[in-house]
């Protein structure tokens, strides 16, 4: 049994119950924080079973680290891998380093810490929410034939949010013109000597309108001992709409739209990826791609909303802002959404004041990250002309 958080809490009296739509990181951060406030929280998650984390890596940022240690009783250093340097490759495979200490964590390690913290009776998987409707003094959450009455609803159903429009008239994400191919390799499966090239380093290669990154992340169950970690790489490659469709259509011809899960890449697309790696990448990075059994891919999207609350329904995580992965801030933003709401509910004198302050703060940060991400994509030459023009044409709301 872990110790409870030492934070003193004074629950806002109007919020005794909350319903969370979506049980990924964004929903879980909110659920755990609200439970800390003494709120009776229920999470409904559409997918059944434990999600496949795809082993994907996440840069450990301050709000996530604070959340894990303060609300989950987990020492983030125990489930993350340190890097001491940034390493920059040139095309001929040579590299130079600069000192930069950071920690890398995996999606799965964060997810497991949050799920462990939340009473399992509060989490209902395989239960899609079909409607989130306001009523005086609260919200009705519709799940199957049941209607659950809650005082506050958190909509955390991700970038493809079905319920975003209930709160914001805008915010549907737009394709930015490039994809992230990704891969993870168990450290023990790396070819001789390659582990030492990437160990303790956050590696970068900026090519012509392309960028490649690599860092180590924890292995299964947050394992961080040498030999049990994984190399995690991300390769940003431009693709027009037809190219995106090709990449995300799997080996059986099924179209997946904006992402391709591991294990499904079509042989022709995989062959092209390997060819491209041989032509474009410095040797150590090429070897990573060649030794990856199941590369997967995600479309890079831009999305932002002009509001994050309507009556007692709040948008959080990627349902509100989808920011570029170059910012390394999506999980961080979702954690900060929850911490800010926790603090506002705890400290401000009324529910209206708390929600107003929360929304103001989160819109400002979401917009800043959105613009920062588009700017980084532009600097790397990755933005499609239409995505750059559309992003530039959008004045700050
Ligand atoms: C493979 C991968 C790699 C990533 N890498 C990074 C990274 O390196 N750095 C980083 O900062 N971020 C990364 N992210 C993004 C980061 O995980 C998210 O930004 C963060 O988790 C917040 O997401 P979210 O919970 O808002 O949305 P999501 O993770 O998209 O979750 C939305 C959830 O809502 C559920 N849902 C949808 N509709 C309904 C419904 N009607 N009823 C109930 N449930 C519903 C979905 O099943 C899903 O579980 C990555 C994400 C993925 C998938």
From TrEMBL:
Top-rank taxon: Bacteria
UniProt cross-references to InterPro entries, sorted A to Z: DHP_3-monooxygenase, DhpH_subs-bd, FAD/NAD-bd_sf
Alphabetized UniProt keyword annotations: Monooxygenase, Oxidoreductase
Entry keyword Lyase: no
GO molecular function: monooxygenase activity
Keyword Oxidoreductase attributed: yes
PANTHER family: MONOOXYGENASE-LIKE (PTHR47469), OS06G0597600 PROTEIN (PTHR47469:SF2)
Protein name according to UniProt: FAD-dependent monooxygenase
Origin species: Streptomyces acidicola
